[in-house]
Amino acid sequence: MKTIVCKTYEEMSACAADIIADVMKKKPACVLGLATGSTPVGTYKELIRKHRAGEIDFSAVTTVNLDEYYPISPENDQSYRYFMNVNLFDHVNVDKAKTYVPDGTAADPDEACAAYEALVSKVGPADIQVLGIGQNGHIGFNEPDSALEVATHVTGLTDSTIRANARFFASVEDVPTKALTMGIGTILSAKKIIILANGAAKAAAVAKMLEGKLDTSCPASMLNLHADVTVICDEAAMGQ
Ligand code: GLP
Q1: 171-188: pLDDT as tens digits
Q2: Of 1, 12, 22, 162, most Cβ neighbours within 10 A?
C-alpha cells in the first residue's frame, strides 16, 4: 500500500480530489465508487470547486456508492442517498439516473443486494473507489467478524459503529441497526482504491490495516490483497 501523510484535513481532501480528478480527465465516462461519512466531505467540496472552475466534467460519469442504512428512506436526511445528493450530486453536472446507492427501502433486502452486486459488475468495475475507515477498521459496512462477506449483503451494525454514527442522529435509538453494503470482493473489484482517514480515533485501525496481514477483525486489512491502494491520512491518523 502506498501512504500519503498530509499536515491538514484540507490538504488530505485536496490530494484525494486530485487523484479522482485525474481518473475523470483520463476517462470522462468513468465509474466512481463513492463513500459517505464525515471523512470524504472535504474531498467532495474540492471536487465541486474543481467542477465550478471548469476542471472536471461529471456529464458522462456513473457513480456506485458503497452502502446504505436499512431500512431508511432516501428523503431521510441521514440516509446515504440524501448525503450524496447534498454533499456532491446536487452541485455538479452528474446525471442522477446514473448515480447508484443500495436501496434502503427494498421490501426484500437480500434481493436488493443481489441486484446491486449485479449492477456494480454491469456498470463497473469502479475505475476508482473512495473509502473511509471505521474506528473498528470497517470499510463500507463490512464490520469485524470471524468471516467476511465477498458480495453485497445485508449486515447488522456493531454497537461501536452505532455509537460512532449516533452523532448524526437525534438519538442512538434512531440509528438503523442494519445496512446494505458492498462486500469485500465488490470493493476489491475496483481498479484503484483510495482510503482516507483523519484524526487520532482512526490511528489504531490505520495501524492494523498497514501491518500487511489479512485479519478479519480489521476488514480494511483485506485491502492488502489489492495492487493499487493509496492511504491518504493526516499525522494523527498515522500516529500509531
Ligand atoms: C460509516 C460508513 C463508512 C465510513 C465510516 C467512517 O459508518 N459506513 O463508509 O467510512 O463509517 O465514518 P466517518 O468518516 O464519519 O468517520
Answers
A1: 999 999 999 999 999 999
A2: 12
Distance of alpha carbon 202 from alpha carbon 45, whole angstroms: 22
The model carries a pTM of 0.97
Encode pLDDT of 14-44 as tens digits: 999 999 999 999 999 999 999 999 999 999 9
Q: 38 CA to middle of ligand 1, Å?
A: 7
Q: Is 169 exposed, middle or buried (0-12, 13-18, 19+ CB in 10 A)?
A: middle
Distance in Å, CA 121 to ligand 1 centroid: 23
Q: Look-up: residue for cell 484524526?
A: 199
Cα distances from 178 to residues 64, 131, 142, 151, 157, in angstroms, run: 19, 19, 11, 16, 6
The domain spans of the chain are: 2-234
User: What CATH number has the domain spanning 2-234?
Assistant: 3.40.50.1360
- The answer to whether the beta carbons of residues 183 and 138 sit under 8 Å apart is no
Residues recorded for the chain: 240
